[in-house]
Amino acid sequence: MSLAPPTRTVLVTGAAKRLGREIALALAKDGWQVAVHYRSALEDAQKTVADCVRWAGASAAFCADLTDEAAVRNLLPEVIRHFGRVDAVVNNAATFEHDTTASFSFAALDKHLHSNTGAAIILTQALYQHVQECVGSDGVQTQTPLGVVVNLLDQKLWNQNPDFFSYTLSKAALEAATTMLAMALSPQLRVVGVAPGLTLTSHLLSPEKFEALHRLSPLGRSSTAADVAATVKFAIDNASITGTTLLVDGGQHLMKFERDFSLL
């Protein structure tokens, strides 16, 4: 009689709403137990947890301010204490505030680097330590990856413009970190980037403007939340992918935009 495979657990940061929620639900539908991270949107996080439970049977919400190093370092151990193990981390949460070369400041850069880059690296570091501890009691290390990290990036890195200067720098640093972490932490850990294009609207865009901008790509459409979630799932499931980034943007990175979508 074959034994059922162990239930897998994933931590998704910023999973209370928007893209993080869609990623969490997609993984729950695939049988993953989902740790739903949030910073302040408790009610939204509880709704995501309830919806994940309908599919996977187990989910829980975890609060942490990703600009606070101590809070970030405590996050994965807290998830492990709750679920017993963690197999994957999706670094989705991000600070996205506008600045330019003219308004740039150390404070703006620090804020973006802490939440968008540093937090992702610390969570990757923590997952690596966890999977090392999960190696068999005989101490023999496997050549099969035991864990995976997916970092949400941005097609903007391949199609740069001067808007959201500190945000872009933080994502560029995370893209470089994705490569270096994949090199340093293999074979126990895979690290993969996923870079969406214009995916969800915001208060900066009217519905009509969003639809028009969404069509600005070689394929006539950019990414949807479902597209991005499916790509995250693919990156997690495909054991041959590490140290690279999958662009999911309808080809928007092939076009030159002088300004950020929100300012076109």
Provide structural commentary.
- The termini are far apart.
- Helices cover 42% and strands 14% of the residues.
- The protein has a single domain (9-251), classed as Rossmann fold (3-Layer(aba) Sandwich), CATH 3.40.50.
- The protein is an alpha/beta fold and 264 residues long.
- Helix 3 (69-83) packs parallel to helix 4 (106-133).
- The longest helix is centred in the middle third of the chain and has 28 residues, at 106-133.
- The mean pLDDT is 93.
- The relative contact order is 0.13.
Whole-number total of structural domains: 1
The global form is globular
Number of helices: 7
CATH class division: Alpha Beta
- Please list the strands of the largest sheet in the order they lie side by side: 3-2-1-4-5-6-7
How would you spell out the order of helices and strands? EHEHEHEHEHEHHE
Number of strand segments: 7
The residue ranges in which pLDDT falls below 50 over 5 or more consecutive positions are none
Q: What would CATH call the homologous superfamily?
A: NAD(P)-binding Rossmann-like Domain
Radius of gyration computed on alpha carbons: 18 Å
- Look at the structure and give the mean pLDDT: 93
Which structural class should the secondary elements be placed in? alpha/beta
CATH topology: Rossmann fold
Short description:
With about 260 residues, the chain is of the alpha/beta class. The protein is about 40% helix and about 15% strand. It contains seven helices and seven strands.
